[in-house]
Specification:
about 400 residues, alpha/beta, 8-stranded mixed sheet, about 40% helix, globular
Length: about 400
């Protein structure tokens, strides 16, 4: 039995408008949406997140059609070692146009890769949308409701430039293919899981890495960022802010967040958001800075991390459709955190619920991550004392 969590729409009233409204000086989303190179030496004291997808994200009448978005998190102290080591490890692996492609790898290659990554504190997250469980009408409705929510709270009091910008973003969304929209919904889900699980994991082991978040997403074009990618880059920040209000990020009591707080100091929650938060909430984390300071859509030929993300994400999809044996995919669990909701998360824009699918047994076994979230000595759930917070205190 595989549970598919229904995706929730972004509440643009409490998210996108505050982010774009230039009249407001103190907001939770102040980071720039464009890629910014910092003076920090690339990789040092950072979480390096590489994200790729596998599958067509097209609705179908087949019995199953899982499409995946996966992310690997590489601690900054290991990034150079992993890049150099992967080039050596994969020297004799099958390639396509000069780069390693997951669809061409065999079980032994995946096993070798996971064995190489496991001692270097690499994490792997994956979200899956089975396009056989959702219709084009449901995806279209989800997209239409999202578009309507983007502009329904605009008033003449807003700056004309803001109104024009939001209208432009809505137009991009309405013209976006259902296939690409489904992929972006899954991508946003992965980003949330990386933020939550990655911070919980590294605050106990490598807390200095939380000083910087470097996001590299596999690009659709090798020439420039597409309008659709730009839409997601802008809208993912208010989307996650909106989600954090409904479902606050988990922070670990006793975890070392010193480096994170130095880089991302708390900001006072503005009045227009307080009505949606508990009365005691006074400050919040700047999601715009976490996501916007260092984000790019990159070419996999230039990023070893994207080739690794492609290999692992393809392995998940191939395991679900039966194109790779357990001797290969079971090693993925060494890189995934043991979690009550499963290390591989299934989401849907349809009616959700559970179903017995042709991949149910594989999905259940694959989702049993082998990395413990809490370190020894914290005493499991009771000792961990994890508390939910929307990046606020």
């Amino acid at each position: 039995m595989v549970a598919h969590q229904r995706d929730q729409l972004l509440d643009m009233r409490i998210a996108l408008i505050p982010h774009l409204d230039a009249k407001r000086q103190v907001v939770l989303l102040t980071g720039h949406g464009r890629h910014e190179r910092t003076n920090r030496e690339q990789g040092q004291d950072s979480m390096n997140i590489f994200i790729d997808e596998s599958g067509g994200f097209q609705c179908t009448e087949k019995s199953a059609a899982p499409s995946c978005v996966g992310a690997i998190v590489i601690p900054g102290r290991y990034i150079q070692e992993i890049e150099e080591g992967f080039r050596e490890l994969s020297r004799d692996w099958p390639r396509e146009k000069g780069e390693v492609k997951g669809k061409r790898l065999q079980e032994c290659h995946i096993a070798q890769l996971c064995e190489f990554l496991e001692p270097r504190a690499v994490l792997f997250e994956c979200s899956v949308m089975d396009m056989a469980l959702v219709t084009e009408a449901e995806v279209g409705h989800h997209r239409a409701m999202q578009a309507e929510g983007m502009t329904k709270n605009l008033t003449p009091e807003h700056q004309p430039s803001l109104i024009a910008q939001v209208q432009r973003l809505r137009g991009v969304l309405e013209g976006m293919s259902l296939q690409l929209y489904s992929q972006f919904v899954t991508l946003s889900h992965v980003v949330w899981r990386v933020m939550e699980h990655g911070m919980l994991y590294y605050c106990q082991r490598l807390p200095g890495e939380l000083a910087h978040f470097r996001w590299v997403v596999d690009a659709k074009s090798d020439v420039r960022i597409t309008p659709q990618e730009d839409w997601w880059r802008v809208c993912v920040k208010p989307l996650l802010q909106s989600r954090s209000i409904r479902e606050p990020l988990i922070m670990l009591k006793g975890g070392d967040y010193a480096a994170f707080r130095r880089s991302f100091p708390s900001k006072v929650i503005p009045d227009y958001l307080r009505e949606h938060l508990p009365s005691h909430a006074r400050t919040g984390t700047d999601f715009g800075a976490v996501l916007g300071r260092d984000m790019e859509f990159g070419d996999s030929r230039q990023h070893v991390g994207l080739q690794i993300a492609d290999a692992l994400t393809n392995c998940v999809r191939r395991a679900l459709v039966g194109n790779i044996q357990a001797d290969g995919w079971r090693h993925l669990r060494k890189l995934m955190i043991s979690h009550r909701d499963g290390s591989v998360k299934f989401i849907t824009m349809g009616n959700g619920g559970s179903r017995e699918g042709p991949y149910a047994l594989v999905a259940t076994q694959l989702a049993r991550g082998e990395r413990s979230m809490v370190t020894e000595g914290r005493g499991g759930r009771r000792g961990a004392s994890a508390s939910r917070r929307a990046g606020r205190r």
